[in-house]
Write a structure and sequence with these properties.
Layout (H helix, E strand, L loop, with lengths): L16 E4 L7 E4 L7 H7 L14 E3 L2 E3 L3 H6 L15
Antiparallel strand pairs: 1-2, 3-4
């Protein structure tokens, strides 16, 4: 006859996930750790691009739509305007 009360945590948030595929050392899904995380941060989390990568041919998708970025410039300069913040389910 025990009575257990489980209260919801008001600060709990589902993890938001970004997927990175292709010529990076560790492709896969990565959790967004903060709201200011950018494309270059995710690439760094994935170990960086391999020597076989072709940044000019890269694609970035948000909500199923292709977003234009310049990955070559992002890799050279992480402060470039194309280095946008990532959002849940970006690919």
């Amino acid at each position: 006859y025990d009575f257990a009360v489980i209260r919801p945590d008001p600060f709990f948030k589902q993890q938001q996930i970004v997927t990175i595929e292709g010529e990076v050392y560790y492709p896969g899904e990565y959790a967004i750790t903060n709201s200011n995380e950018t494309i270059s941060d995710i690439i760094n989390s994935a170990g960086g691009v391999t020597k076989n990568s072709y940044p000019f041919g890269s694609s970035f998708f948000r909500n199923g739509d292709r977003v234009r970025i310049d990955l070559k410039k992002i890799l050279k300069n992480p402060k470039h305007s194309s280095n946008i913040n990532v959002q849940n389910l970006d690919k």
